[in-house]
């Protein structure tokens, strides 16, 4: 890894994250030595310009980092410097599993997951039921976007604590459709609507961070005092 300082935290370039399609470009924001969890954050659709540097992804990372957790971000296959080609959300699930494996080997801690838009769909598919994953956050859950439909029947068997955060003006996840998807999900689950926010949470990113922090403190006692 190569290191640089980002504020008070060390940002590391990860050189050894590999999935079935090859090397995945990744960054790790280092956590405290006594961190009780590690975290993984996934980016929105790469064909729409989504990368691990997306603003929503960055703010989700900062929410987890505020607890002193190490946070891994990576680019899906075919995105920027990651090997491979885009696979319509199928192979990308294996990319998520590769990232989970890397975090597990590196830290051996339970993992908290967050994904934005396409990243939330792919990450939920990969992480639901995985014993390494303690909790799941879906930001801007998409139901229909740019001709792509997203189905969430698999949430019926997803028993980890789940947080869904969406804007009530989300053009890719209208209120009624997101509520229908969340209704499918097994408990425990929380749904937070950000008033006036569109899909990209423009001017509402601090609200997203606070929603993640409040949920994490409520469901994970080791974070409650942070």
Describe the structure in your own words.
- The chain is of the alpha/beta class.
- The chain has a single domain, classed as Rossmann fold.
- Helices cover 28% and strands 25% of the residues.
- It is built from five helices and 13 strands.
- The strands form three sheets. It has a nine-stranded mixed β-sheet with strand order 1-2-5-7-6-8-9-12-13, sandwiched between helices. A two-stranded antiparallel ribbon has the order 3-4.
- Helix 3 links the parallel strand 8 and strand 9.
- Helix 2 packs across helix 3.
- The chain is globular.
- The chain starts with a strand and ends in a 7-residue tail after the last helix.
- 48% of the residues are buried.
């Amino acid at each position: 890894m190569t290191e640089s300082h980002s504020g008070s935290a060390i940002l590391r370039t990860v050189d050894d994250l590999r999935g079935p399609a090859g090397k995945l470009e990744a960054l790790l924001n280092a956590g405290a030595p006594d961190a009780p969890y590690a975290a993984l954050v996934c980016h929105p659709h790469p064909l729409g310009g989504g990368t691990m540097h997306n603003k929503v992804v960055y703010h989700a990372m900062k929410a987890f980092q505020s607890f002193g957790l190490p946070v891994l971000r990576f680019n899906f296959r075919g995105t920027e410097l990651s090997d491979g080609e885009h696979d319509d959300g199928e192979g990308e699930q294996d990319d998520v599993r590769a990232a989970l494996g890397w975090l597990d080997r590196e830290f051996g801690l339970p993992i908290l997951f967050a994904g934005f838009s396409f990243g939330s769909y792919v990450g939920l598919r990969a992480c639901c039921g995985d014993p390494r994953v303690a909790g799941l956050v879906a930001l801007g859950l998409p139901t229909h976007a740019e001709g792509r439909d997203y189905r969430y029947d698999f949430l019926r068997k997803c028993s980890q604590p789940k947080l869904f955060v969406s804007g009530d003006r989300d053009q890719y996840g209208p209120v009624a459709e997101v509520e229908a998807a969340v209704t499918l999900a097994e408990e425990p689950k929380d749904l937070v609507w950000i008033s006036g926010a569109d899909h990209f949470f423009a001017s509402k990113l601090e609200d997203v961070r606070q929603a993640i922090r409040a949920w994490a403190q409520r469901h994970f006692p080791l974070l409650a005092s942070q």
